[in-house]
Amino acid sequence: MSKLAYLGRPWTVFEAKNKQHRAWFAEFQNRRTWAHCPVRFVVADDQGDLVTMIQQRLIEYYTTKEFGKIEDQNHLTLVK
Fold first, then answer.
1. Do 57 and 29 contact (CB within 8 A), yes or no?
2. Number of separate domains in the chain
3. Model confidence over 31-67: pLDDT tens digits?
4. Residue 41 exposed, middle or buried by CB count within 10 Å (0-12, 13-18, 19+)
5. CA gap 21, 15 in Å, rounded
6. pTM of the model
7. Which domain holds residue 20?
8. CA-to-CA separations, 14 to 25, 30, 31, 53, 75, in angstroms, rounded
9. Phi-psi bin for 20: left (phi > 0), alpha (psi -120 to 50), beta?
10. ∠ CA(78), CA(60), CA(39), 5° rounding?
């Protein structure tokens, strides 16, 4: 293995419920760079890019937190 594999920032999956992950993304938005983030976030194959993926997960997190989980997509029933 190369030195970069040992010395590089560890990879992790972004979790919107993780307060530290949200803080790192907020820092990225303010600074417009990931240079100060201690981890690298993994992008799923079916996602476009990292920022869009994180934004989509945050939207889902906050709407679920405020309105509850939508159980039936056909009837748009909100459950609290």
1. no
2. 1
3. 999 999 999 999 987 778 999 999 999 999 999 999 9
4. buried
5. 7
6. 0.77
7. 3-79
8. 9, 18, 19, 9, 30
9. alpha
10. 155
Q: What phi and psi, each to the nearest 5 degrees, are found at residue 32?
A: 60, 35
Q: What tokens does 55 get?
A: 């934004």
Pick from 42, 45, 52: which is nearest to 15 by CA?
Answer: 42
DSSP 26-79: HHHHHHS-STT-SSEE---TTSS-HHHHHHHHHHHHHHHHHH-EE--TTTT-EE
Q: What six digits make up the tokens of 46?
A: 């079916």
